Amino acid sequence: MPKLGEKPFYKYCPYCSAKLTLKEKGGMLRPVCEACGFVQFLNPTVGVAVIVVEGEKILLGKRNKPPALGKWCIPCGHVEWGEDVREAAKREFLEETGLVVDVGDVFEVLSNFHNPEHLTVGVWFWGNVIGGELRAGDDLSEVKFFSLWDLPKDMAFPTDRMVIDKLRKLFKKRF
Predict the structure, then answer these.
(1) Which of 34, 80, 87, 142 is catalytic?
(2) How far is CA 20 from the centre of its chain?
(3) Topology of the domain comprising 45-174
(4) d(CA 29, CA 26)
(5) Which of 15, 39, 7 is nearest to 115 (CA)?
(6) Integer Cα distance of 54 and 9 in angstroms
(7) Does 142 qualify as catalytic in the annotation?
(8) Helix H or strand E encompassing 170
(9) E strands within 28-161?
(10) CB within 8 Å of 6: residues ≥ 6 apart
């Protein structure tokens, strides 16, 4: 756990600028402002991804920036403040793939611990393409369909592997 003043803890209160001190709150040591009562909680951000499958092929994107530069992932991104998770999934998918999707049911929700400096909770949705033109954009340099049974070896995120393993089991049951 980082110390006060180290990333990701604030050293000074973001509301009144007073120096923060570590106090026990909710069973953990947390930065607290004695002046205004602010308590800094470390919460993960929410990530969203859309699973588009054609036959037994899944659409993946090759990342063109960190984290996981040059590795493949299910197209994904972060929910903006005040944004609905499904709208965020549509927006991110369009930005990264050029495709407009109808976002369906939640397929999986997982905690992501692969980057200890930026923890996320990921939500993977089913998606159906309803428009657009396939092209890489935003955080991706390439987009392409891969067989569920023959994926790139250089996958970006362990949770994507978990999602794909779950997909494989689903497809085995169907066929």
Answers:
(1) 142
(2) 30
(3) Nucleoside Triphosphate Pyrophosphohydrolase (3.90.79)
(4) 8
(5) 7
(6) 44
(7) yes
(8) helix 158-174
(9) 28-33, 45-51, 53-54, 57-63, 72-73, 76-78, 99-112, 120-132, 140-147
(10) none
List CB contacts of 92: < 8 A, sequence separation 6 or more. 48, 49, 50, 75, 76, 77, 78, 138
Q: How far apart are CA 175 and CA 171, in angstroms?
A: 6
- Taking the C-alpha atoms of residue 66 and residue 85, their distance in angstroms, rounded to an integer, is 23
Give tens-digit pLDDT for 132-158.
Answer: 999 999 999 999 999 999 999 999 999
pTM score, two decimals? 0.87
**Contact at 8 Å (CB) between 166 and 90?**
no
| Structure-block tokens of residue 122 | 């990921």
Structure tokens at 102: 């109808």
Place of tokens 């390439």: 142
Q: How far apart are CA 141 and CA 18, in angstroms?
A: 44
Query: Which pLDDT belongs to residue 131?
Result: 98
Question: Domain residue spans in the chain?
Answer: 1-42, 45-174
Helix (H) or strand (E) holding 21: strand 20-25
Model pLDDT for residues 1-42, shown as the tens digit of each residue: 556 556 668 899 999 999 999 998 888 888 999 999 999 988
